[in-house]
Amino acid sequence: MAKKKLNPWFKMALDIGPLVVFFAANSRFGIFAGTAVFMVAAIGAIAIAYAMTRHLAIMPVVTAVVVLVFGSLTLVLHDELFIKLKPTIIYCLFGGVLLGGLIFNKQLLGIVFDSVFHLTDEGWRKLTIRWALFFFFLAVVNEIVWRTQTTDFWVSFKLFGVVPLTLLFGALQYPLLMKYAAEPKDSA
Q1: Does residue 49 have a pLDDT over 50?
Q2: What are the structural domain ranges in the chain?
Q3: Nearest to 157 by CA among 142, 168, 170, 167
Q4: Where are the alpha helices (DSSP H) in the chain?
């Protein structure tokens, strides 16, 4: 039986939705309320996706676990440092796992993209390296922004800086996707 898939626009809304809610709650009630709402929204997005597809995508689950751990530390210790470190840790984790997969000859990016693309091995290798480096770039940018700017600027940058950068980076991968496209393997 084929796995149910979400509409790509709805999937994007579920991926970005918790960040939008975090931004809105932070701007109205502050970082601690924003963090609490972000935690609930992250769980809610996963629950909605699971209810609609009956399967859990790995990236949102890992992200939600890190959000819950670092969000809890932020709230319990009343220290915004932990929620600011969360993106750096997630980006380094994703970049490291992708590169580690290459070392062990595993195409983990295909799992992340949930079989949306069908590429040659060379295409997956190149795309994996690009995404891993992009994740490390985002980690560095997060560190620079949270250490040099206000908390409100950092929260805004997560939504209005990182999301457009990620969409632009993804769009710039289109030529690679076309060059290394492969026929889907039959699952029969």
Answers
A1: yes
A2: 8-179
A3: 142
A4: 8-29, 31-53, 58-77, 81-103, 108-112, 121-148, 151-157, 163-172, 174-179
